[in-house]
Design a protein that fits this description.
With 665 residues, the chain is an alpha/beta fold. It has 3 domains: 3-304, 3-Layer(aba) Sandwich (Rossmann fold), CATH 3.40.50; 353-522, Thiamin diphosphate (ThDP)-binding fold, Pyr/PP domains (Rossmann fold), CATH 3.40.50.970; 538-663, Rossmann fold (3-Layer(aba) Sandwich), CATH 3.40.50.920. It is built from 26 helices and 20 strands. The strands form 5 sheets. A 6-stranded parallel beta sheet has the order 10-9-11-12-14-13, sandwiched between helices. It has a 5-stranded parallel beta sheet with strand order 1-2-3-7-6, with helices on both faces. Helix 19 links the parallel strand 13 (488-490) and strand 14. Helix 1 (3-23) crosses helix 4 (69-79) and helix 1 (3-23) runs antiparallel to helix 11. The longest helix is centred in the middle third of the chain and has 31 residues, at 289-319. It is elongated, with a radius of gyration of 28 Å.
Length: 665
Amino acid sequence: MNSLDELCINTIRTLSMDAIEKAKSGHPGMAMGAAPMAYVLWTRYLRFNPKNPQWFGRDRFVLSAGHASMLLYSLLHLAGYDVSLDDLKNFRQFDSITPGHPEYGLTPGVEVTSGPLGQGIANAVGMAIAERHLAAVFNRPNFPLVDFRVFGIAGDGDLMEGISSEASSLAGHLKLGNLIFFYDDNRITIEGSTDLAFSEDVGKRYEAYGWHVQRVDGNELDAIDAALENATQERTKPSLIIAKTHIAYGSPNKQDTAAAHGSPLGEEEIALTKKKLGWPYAESFTVPDEVRNVFKQAAKRGAEAERQWKELLTRYEKEHKDLAAQWHTLMKGDLPANWRKNLPRFASNDKPVATRSVSGKVMNALAPIIPALIGGSADLAPSTKTYLNGFGDFSAQNYTERNLHFGIREHAMGACMNGMALTAPLKVFGSTFLVFSDYMKPAIRLAAMMGLKVITIFSHDSIGVGEDGPTHQPIEQLAALRAIPGLTVIRPADAKETVAAWEFISEHKDGPVALVLSRQSLPVLDMEESVVRDGVRRGGYAVYETKKKKPEVILLATGSEVHLANTAAKQLDDENIVVRVVSLPSWELFLKQPKSYQDAVLPPSVTARLAIEAGVSQGWERFVGSHGDIIAMDNFGASAPAGKLFKHFGFTVENVVKKARALLT
């Protein structure tokens, strides 16, 4: 290591120490220990242009160990991104662009919101999948339009979390040679040595996954450089570079201890550390000019790479006009003018059909005209009806195809979907049973936080699952999904609402959507398509009314329970009770409507309201009020035929009519 390299690395370390000390909060240890590998990567291998952080041809860098955020912020500042010294000084402060963990869309150069351990690795796998797919679709001889790499740094905690196992196994199976990760092996977690709970041979584990594995001393720059060179040449396997490091490197009293993991070093220890590192500057947040020049050269190389890529794109547009037009359409996120043309239509006299089946028909109608539609399931496509017919299986042998097989890996599927959506404006979908949404919550939550346009399709949406019993019957899952800010949940009542839901999803540009579908067949509503389409877009609308009179009682429902409400309403109508049935497929969309619309659907003067949903009652209070009632599932169900279960738990016409009458007495 020459003196300039050492100065650059120590600049990263001291900026991290100083910012964390000023904030009196943060994780200095990893930022200090991983500085050498990050320095070599960013100054010699990573293609980036701080003047255009979203340049498509750039390499992606994922800091999976997001607690080491000051490592990334220091690199971004030095590299010339719009992250100033003042921003570093405001680390972890309100309204700053340097929060405690990196946040996508907030800080220039941050590729993904990271911090929940293991998620970043899976995001990176998704990015690598998207790159391989787009390269297979668009690249032509002498035109490597898509040819970026995905780099990352992970720590012990990332590799302990199960999601990393799922995602890494998938990456090895798919032979994602464009994926390169450092494992910062510092052997320390919050509680102390990793020996307390983690004694496996990580290298052998990753070799078993099908990864290319190398081991280096994390302070030997030549070894790090050679390992990166080897990894970039390996195109048929993802790479893991295991770097043995020292947490809080250079700290006389806290190096290799848990004390340096999640707490500032303290002013006295920082002074001792800087002295031991040979840091000659007394003032905090010092960046020597020669250090800036090193990073400036790396940025210049990135700017030149972008210039060459743009030239390539210009030639591509001339040589491959049709593909170039498709490329620009995809990158803009546009839909073709005729995208609704082949959507299936349904009439009220059609046979009952499960909404999962309708969804599958819609997807297969959209797939030929929307090339950006790509995704798969957690080994459940035959049940969730999400296979795109005629488009084949995405595999290591054929990255062109659009049906992904995530395997039985819901944790990784959700995070990979996020990574794909972060890479390009793809319409990424994933599917599983609603009850297994629990495995996907962290990724869905992060998708909502980042505003990603991912589509999660959940089938088998109620106790209608039947004989599979309580373990497979979703009860609290709808409420849990609705609790996630920024997530739009849609539970359609029939075929028409399902088509309308997909029309909304196809145009939606504001965060993730969860589409919740039935296994059991449902009748088709006797409603005009235009009314249903508008009603779904607004989240709620009347599907049954007594001669357009002001209602005495309102029945509210979603999904399959709308039909129960309609049947009960007809009986109430026969008893001369003026009733309205409101289908409320999306609470989120309904609550976004003007109050005038909400009041038109649910008149405030009508306090006799009965909600019906085969899930927990939690949340329905906001719609039924203190004078209303709820028929719901506040237990875990049972193993029996679906019809028996609905009857046993009160989802019958008789019970709905009885409770509606009671509200009027």
